[in-house]
Structures are given as C-alpha cells and as structure tokens.
Write a structure and sequence with these properties.
Blueprint lengths: L3 H4 L2 E3 H11 L4 E4 L6 H9 L3 E4 L3 H15 L3 E5 L3 H16 L3 E7 L2 H6 L9 H5 L5 E4 L6 H13 L5 E7 H5 L1 E3 H7 L14 H13 L3 E5 L1 H5 L3 H11 L3 E3 L19 H7 L2 E5 L27 E6 L13 E4 L2 H12 L8 H23 L7 H14 L4 E5 L2 H9 L8 E3 L9 H12 L3 E6 H7 L3 H6 L4 E7 L28 H7 L3 E5 L2 H14 L3 E6 L16 H6 L1
Parallel strand pairs: 2-3, 2-4, 4-5, 5-7, 6-7, 9-10, 9-11, 11-12, 12-13, 14-15, 14-16, 16-17, 17-19, 18-19
Antiparallel strand pairs: 1-8
Length: 575
C-alpha cells in the first residue's frame, strides 16, 4: 500500500525556477549552457521559454541588459559558475551603470564547500564578488525560497533607479524536491514592481517658476527619458513650451531628430548659451562635462557658473552631484513630466523668439555644412560618405533598430544618422564600453522582431564578433556594417622602433570580416563604394538574412580616441 507522502506529486528546483520566471512573464533567456545549468536550459526550452545560447557570457549579458532597456522588464542572463559568472559580471556592472534592468543568474558551488575553501569545481564566493558591482545580490539555498528570491531580484532590478541584480543558485538547489502544491504556493507574482513616484507639489511649482523666468531655456533628454516610455507627454511638454531640446545619443528618436525644435546640430551653441536647463533622465556626468567647464561656457562666458538647472530624477542623491541643482524634481519621469504639463496649462508663453531663432539659425548653418560634406564622394570611402548611405537606409526604415559602437564609428554615426522613433538606438552608453555590439544586436532582433543595423568599428567588432554564429544559428535579421580602416582609430600607424612587429593599433591589412559571416551560412559582402554599400544594406533589410558588410574605408580616416581625445593623456599632450 502506498502512503500519502509517497503519492504526493513532487516538484524540484529546476521546475520552480522555470515556473517563477514564467509567472512573472520572463520567458526569454540569454545565456550559455554548462555545469550546473545545462539541464535547466533544456527544461526551459521544453517548457516553451526561448533560450538564446551565446558563444561568450559577456555578450549574453549585454543582450539581457539591452532587452531590459527596450522592454522595461529585467533581461535574464544565465551562466555557469566561476569563469562564466565572471564573464557575465562585466555586462552586469555595465547594466547597473546605465540603469538597465537585468538579472544575472549563475549556478555556483555549495556554500559549505566555498566557505571551507575545499577546492570544489569552479569554486568561488560569487555573491561576495557581485555585491559591489550591482544594485542588489541574493542567494537561494532552499527550493521553497526560489519564488521569494526571484521576486526580490525582479523588484530590485526595476524599482527606483533600475539596474543589475545578481541571483546565486548553488548546484544542489536544482535537485531539491518538495511537494508540488506547496511549491506552487511559494511562488510570487510581483505586483507593481516599479511603482510611480509622484513629485512633491512644491518641487513642481519651483521648477515651473524657474522655467517661466528663463530667457534661453533648454530641455536635455537622456536615455532615462527613453526608458520611461513617456513619449507622448515628453513630446507635448517640448511642443507646448516651444523650448529647444537636445537628446543624448540613446534618447534620439523620442521626437524625430528632424523635429524643428531639435538642437542636436547646434549642441556647442545651446549648452553654453542656455540660462535654464531642464534635465529629463540625464545625469550631469562626464558625457555632459559634469555641467561645467568649456562645454557650458567656461570662465569668462556670460553664463559661466550661472546656468540654473532643473533635474528630474528618481534618485534624490543625484541632485548636486556636480553642480548645484536649483529645482530638483524627485519622482519617476512619467509622473514628473505629467505634473509639469498639468502646471503649464493653456496660457504658457512659449520660449522667447529671439532665443529660438538664434538656435534655428545656428542649426541651419551647421546642417548645411554637414550636407556639403556628406555630398562628397572621395575615391576611398570615409566615415561621411559611408554613413550618408546608412543615414538614408535608416530614414527609409524607421522601425529598424540601430546598434552602434566604436570610437569614430560611434561619434560619426551619432551625429550623421537621424533617428525617427524612440528606443531604436542602442549604443555604448555611460561607460563608453566596447563589445556591446553583437549582444545588443541579438537582443534588438529578438525583442523587436524588426531588422537590426549594427554599425561597428573594426576594433569594436573584434570584442564580440564570434557571435555572428549566434546570429546565423537563430537566423536573426541583423545587418552588420564593419567600418574597416585596418586598425584601432586608424590603420596607418607604424612601429616607431622600426621593428618587425606592427604598431599595437594596427590590424591585418585587407581583413575580410565578411568571410566570417559566410562561414556560418550568412551573407557576406565586401563594399568599397557607397553604391555597393547601399545595394548590400537594401538587400539585407529586404531579405532579413544575417548579413555582414565589410565596408572598406580610408585607413587614414578617424582620430585617436574619437571625440574624447582629452581623456587620453598622451593624445592631450600632443594637442
């Protein structure tokens, strides 16, 4: 006779992890199988989850981070223990720095072995290592706590300022069995994971009063504004006030870059001249020269040290991080922008015509200059002549995702290629880290189901290039354009000693990156002219086949460190 205990249906750690993720709508996993998570990936796939398996964990982590930015839900990266965990940690730290919600889930050794340092396979105290590099870190030791662990990880990743979270799952956890009904009851569906945070009425009034007093107001949009998905209200705020706006790179497209109030082409004019700056989801970090110095007028400029700032941020500690913030608004971006709109009403006087006309004049002059440069067709392609093609392709395909990394490839693309819709541009972000390209491209294709255009410097492509196999394996509609000028920054540097080794900054001449894509069944094309590049890109978008275009550009094109030469001590001295 079978007793009640033996006849009770059982579940285990594998199933509870899967059920907890599915309960919270997290059904796409980016990762790399191996001990102790190999069976977990198989079981996930069998349960209808999509498991995208990469060639390197860092790229899987970057994909999860990009997915988090695009969807507002935490992207999930699954890795093996120790080395695999460490490979994913770079992406986790980068996600935290960029405020992308992401959860890195890694298998690990048992606590009793780690704590006694007994030399287990890939033994490492992963939780302790992860803690300083992410927003939160948790370890689950018992099957009945899996639901709590995943719920806490989700809420930590998306609430307040989003970021990366580490979840440690020791190998022994997966095989733990428990009563199926009790297991189901232990799972948590997270309710209101990122609750609205309404700004205080006096903060709203202070901001509106300051904005109303401005003679030269400017709205500065950061990638936080794109992440907030408050596009309609942000557009309404900009258009009702008539204030010129400047989008940071991943905020491009919240309003089309061709919008009459977009001041991107007059950036060096509006930043020092503006007297009141409204920051929406942007931080005054190094990307904005910390809100001071030459970029903002510098010593001797009439506005030097006199600009006033309104800052919308969900973190109160962000205010005054570099310069005084005259009107901090603490709350989520959607609620803050909505509150400003309500306060503006219908009687608001638009930004002074003298200011908006001056911005428009400077913008039009710079646009005309750029048009002249783009119209040139040198014998060997350069960044301008090649990116003029990309500019046209993106304009004709505004729903396509654009991934961008490199030094010069990043800088030139950001200033030449217009974006028309929000959250369509993914790039290196706050750290300016290279290697995000293929991970971001995979996530962009998986999450959007739209064509992806990845504009890569040849150096940047090298960090994640092996993932072209992943792109081919999953038959993703990704078109990679490698800007090949034979080196880091440029390809004409020589070994100053006259020795046999090439310069550390120079690659193999005439490298055929297109053959890499062909090796895995994709389409490889070498383009030496704008016409060839255009044909190849148009065919890639139309066919949706994995494509890599090796775009040969002048090896003397480009500058060391791109537009951040001042951060390179030796280059700064040369200047």
């Amino acid at each position: 006779m079978t007793n009640d205990t033996q006849s009770t249906e059982q579940t285990d750690g594998f199933q509870l992890v899967i059920d907890a993720l599915k309960l919270n709508g997290l059904t796409t996993i980016y990762g790399l199988p191996g001990i102790p998570v190999t069976d977990l990936t198989r079981k996930m796939q069998a349960e209808g989850m999509r498991v995208i398996s990469f060639r390197h964990e860092q790229n899987a982590g970057n994909a999860a981070a990009a997915a988090g930015f695009m969807t507002g839900k935490p992207g999930i990266c699954l890795t093996v223990s120790a080395p695999g965990f460490l490979n994913g940690l770079t992406a986790l730290a980068n996600a935290t720095t960029n405020c992308f919600p992401m959860i890195l889930i890694s298998g690990s050794s048992e606590r009793e072995i780690v704590d006694l340092q007994q030399g287990d396979y890939e033994e490492m105290d992963q939780l302790a290592i992860a803690k300083p590099l992410c927003k939160a870190a948790f370890r689950v030791l018992n099957a009945e706590d899996i639901g709590v662990g995943i719920a806490r990880a989700i809420r930590s990743a998306v609430s307040g300022r989003p970021g990366g979270v580490y979840l440690d799952l020791p190998a022994k956890l997966f095989g733990q069995a428990m009563d199926a009904a009790a297991g189901k009851a232990s799972l948590i569906k997270v309710i209101d994971a990122a609750p609205r945070q309404i700004p205080a009425p006096d903060a709203v009034k202070r901001a509106l009063d300051l904005l109303k007093s401005a003679k030269k107001p400017l709205i500065l949009l950061g990638k936080g504004a794109a992440y907030a998905q408050a596009d309609a209200d942000i557009k309404a705020l900009i258009e009702k006030t008539g204030i010129p706006y400047l989008p940071m790179s991943m905020a491009k497209g919240i309003l089309p870059d061709t919008h009459e109030q977009c001041a991107s082409a007059a950036r060096s004019f509006v930043l020092p001249e503006a007297d009141v700056v409204l920051l929406v989801g942007a931080r005054l970090n190094w990307l904005l020269s910390h809100g001071k110095g030459k970029t903002w007028g510098g010593q001797g400029h009439k506005n030097a040290g006199g600009q006033k700032f309104i800052q919308i941020d969900i973190s109160p500690t962000e205010a005054d991080s570099n310069v005084a913030i005259d009107a901090p608004m603490v709350g989520d971006i959607g609620s803050c922008v909505s509150a400003l709109l309500a306060g503006i009403g219908s009687s608001w006087a638009k930004a002074p015509a003298e200011w908006t006309s001056a911005v428009a004049d400077r913008k039009n002059k710079n646009v005309a200059k750029m048009a002249e440069t783009l119209a040139k067709n040198p014998a060997v392609m350069n960044y301008h002549s090649s990116l003029n093609v990309v500019r046209d392709i993106v304009k004709a395909n505004p729903d396509a995702m654009l991934v961008n990394e490199g030094a010069n490839a990043l800088d030139f693309t950001r200033s030449i290629v217009d974006m028309y819709k929000p959250r369509k541009r993914l790039d290196v972000g706050t750290w300016g880290v290279m290697g995000i390209g293929m991970g971001f491209a995979v996530a962009a294709a998986v999450e959007s189901d739209q064509p992806v255009i990845a504009i890569e410097g040849d150096s940047a492509f090298g960090f994640s290039g092996m993932e072209v196999e992943t792109i081919c394996r999953y038959n993703l509609p990704v078109c990679i354009v490698v800007m090949n000028n034979n080196g880091v920054y440029r390809g004409d540097e020589v070994n100053v000693t006259g020795g046999k080794d090439p310069s550390p900054l120079v690659f193999v001449k005439g490298a055929r990156y297109d053959k890499m894509m062909e090796a895995f069944g994709g389409v490889g094309v070498q383009a030496t002219t704008p016409a060839e590049l255009r044909r190849a890109m148009e065919e890639a978008i139309k066919s949706r086949k994995p494509t890599l275009i090796n775009a040969i550009i002048d090896e003397t094109a480009g500058t060391e460190s791109g537009r951040i030469t001042s951060l390179n001590p030796q280059s700064a001295k040369k200047k």
